[in-house]
């Protein structure tokens, strides 16, 4: 249908379509001139060209500015019209964003390069999560690797929409799924666990569900997913700050125990070990089941990033005490003439000293 008045425009000029007007309004709103900094009197904040950043930068960030439903539709129109090929990350934190987020989800099909959607501390609820249902309808398959929606208003219905999308392979590359501090209970977690147990998201390594409404039923469903082969690349499952009991904790802990990728569950204090420390300890246990595990239990990292070792205890158990003392000397520790039984006090040595011990 012709646009009224379009025939009266000069040659080469046309009326913008509705979606083009939405995209232009979005860019106009979020483009900023150079301006004084509120907190530093003599500092000027640089200008921000929203459209230029959208088309040139790998990270597009409009966080900490209000994004209403009209803005969401404008962002969705920009994604659909411009297909920014370089865009990797979309940051929408603390924007008061609500139901309009559904339009953004639908438009993600236009940006296959996108790897991260970061939208914590908004008002995203179950209606917004219906965008996943529409992605299923069009047979979408996104390349997202990280989806972070913590501290929103997602409930069971929204989690079910997400579960359906996972089962339909809408997010086959997903590695991190962060849904902490929402309103998700057993009615949402059980379908998510069933989807994961059915083979969805085979690359998933971190699942964050802390601060929701999970009971023993949810933890049992996650344990069942593990027994079915979910989380083959798992690193962490966060379920602390939920109303489960020791029964649920023991059920999930038993399923995690012996995981081939050293999956850890976070149930509360104390937190799980840092990933690098866990891998280092695993390497120690593989190399020497008698000597090196005792070494791994002794390192202590001080603020200067050095390792403190109880050298006498290591010397008593080391398979090659002479070699140990050579390493001690190379690390700046004087090797005593009496050999391995000498009285060496606790001594601070460089980081690479521990690595050399692992290679003995």
Keywords summarizing the entry:
alpha/beta, globular, single chain, 15 helices, 8-stranded parallel sheet, 360 residues, disordered N terminus
Secondary structure layout plus pairing:
Blueprint: H1 18-30, E1 35-36, E2 44-45, H2 50-56, E3 59-61, H3 69-82, E4 89-91, H4 101-107, E5 116-118, H5 126-129, H6 131-137, E6 146-148, H7 156-167, E7 176-178, H8 186-197, E8 206-208, H9 216-227, E9 236-238, H10 246-256, E10 264-266, H11 275-287, H12 292-296, E11 307-309, H13 311-317, H14 321-330, E12 347-349, H15 351-358
Plain-language structure description:
34% of the residues are buried. The chain is of the alpha/beta class. The protein contains 15 helices and twelve strands. It has helices spanning 18-30, 50-56, 69-82, 101-107, 126-129, 131-137, 156-167, 186-197, 216-227, 246-256, 275-287, 292-296, 311-317, 321-330, 351-358, and strands at 35-36, 44-45, 59-61, 89-91, 116-118, 146-148, 176-178, 206-208, 236-238, 264-266, 307-309, 347-349. It is globular. 39% of the residues lie in helices and 9% in strands. Helix 9 packs parallel to helix 10. The chain has an eight-stranded parallel sheet. Strands 1-2 form a two-stranded antiparallel sheet. Strands 11-12 form a two-stranded antiparallel sheet.
